[in-house]
Amino acid sequence: MPHDSHDHDHGAHALLPPDPALRVRALETLLARKGFVDPAAMDAILDFYENRIGPRIGATVVARAWTDPDFRAALREDSTAALAAEGLLGRQGEHMVVVENTPEVHNVVVCTLCSCYPWPLLGIPPSWYKSDAYRARVVREPRKVLSEFGLTLPEAQSVRVWDSTAEIRYLVLPMRPEGTEGLGAEALADWVTRNAMIGTGLPERPQ
């Protein structure tokens, strides 16, 4: 649901310590000091899953929605059913809602109480998504936070913040970039960034 009504119960999620990232980093440091892991290799693996494997699944969903009107309509009507039909639901993403950007409204996703995130579609959540600063500030001052990501929106375009819960996860369907009319779904998926599907970025021309 949008943030103006976010009295939800995260259940067991609310019992988690506030910053699990610190615990993970401490464990990684200990294992590295004992020679059990190579920090560079771990960083490479995490980057691969965080930025390439996971988000690529969501990117294919976005690209198909851009090119398949029936699939796009199905996502609008019942996102969970449409994604389930494609075998794209799973743990940490059992119930999904796809919210679509328009020239009038830009959507951005947060989890204010912990770090609920659509793992089956976007992979490992980035560290900033789990940070106290992002979780608190994007609700109070979304335009300023987005500007810090390098995203400046037109004044006429409002910002809507969606608060993920243990029950519902959100995926942003960004607007299709201009000049991509001749591209198919496979090529379009290369334009879709992870941040565009969270709402802190836009699609980008692939390098």
Give an overview of the whole structure.
The chain has helices spanning 20-33, 39-67, 69-77, 79-85, 119-122, 127-130, 132-140, 142-148, 185-189, 194-198, and strands spanning 96-100, 105-110, 158-163, 169-173. α2 crosses α3, α3 (69-77) crosses α4 and α7 packs across α8. The radius of gyration is 17 Å and the shape is globular. By secondary structure, it is mainly alpha-helical. It has one domain (19-198): Nitrile hydratase alpha /Thiocyanate hydrolase gamma (Nitrile Hydratase, Chain A, Alpha-Beta Complex), CATH 3.90.330.10. The chain has 10 helices and 4 strands; from the N terminus they run ααααββααααββαα. The strands form 2 sheets. A two-stranded parallel sheet has the order 1-4.
